[in-house]
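Notebook entry, structure prediction.
Reason for the run: the old model in the group folder had no record of what sequence produced it. Starting over properly, with the input documented here first.
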Amino acid sequence: MTSLDLLSGPKALGAFLRAHRERTSPEMVGLPHSTRRRTSGLRREELAQISGISTTWYTWIEQGRDVSISAGTLSRLAQALRLQPAEEDYLFTLAGVKNPQEHVQAPTVSEHLAQCIDQLNCPGYLIDSCWNMLAWNTQAEQLFQGWLDNDEQPNLLRFVFLHPLARTLLVNWEARAKRIVAEFRAETSHYAHSEAVRQWVLNLRQESSEFDKGWAQQEVLAREGGERRFEHPQRGPVRYLQQTFLPSGNSELRMVMLIEQALTAQAS
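New structure, fully documented this time:
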């Protein structure tokens, strides 16, 4: 077995299951303890029986054979092994199967994260899976003056497609709007089972014909950094380099920073 086998694929899945089987005691799953046991963990046949699969089938999985495993089987294995949410998500990732009960954390902003946003020396903000603006600093409020300082529940998508300021503030609005739809579609794949995200898309398609048209085009783009230009009503043309980060501890949040760049003679 190579070092790469331990990072992904059937071998990695088998090694993960074996390690957790060997650390799961019979008492943890309601089986009687026996002083004659040669191991402190579960036997393969015991885990297979609890999970509702044959011992041979489970043995093949643990041996790293290339077999197909259903989401239901993985869920039962995770339950039998008393896996924590992060461990269960990792199990599904190793198997290459979508977890139907994926553990998505609530979009909460910790005090520490809010302080980080406030202390940035550039416009910065936090968005959730529906691109609701959860926190932002003074620089961001100044950049989006007329929106962030007035909207009680600001949402970046609603701003781009429904707020009149967006069409004058965002340079080359049509291209930016088209890319934003494609980026948002790419991110929705992480929340395929989220009713909140599904309903949000349906509502915005009804409210904005431009968003509806863009969504119907089925384009997908990764959310990337790059130049972002604005025509600010007070400052005039400004140019930023956008960077997006995933804060640790909450995979649903995105932290966006806009680092101001000097305007060049070619910029328009």
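Summary: The first strand starts at residue 124 and ends at 127.
The old model has been moved to the deprecated folder.
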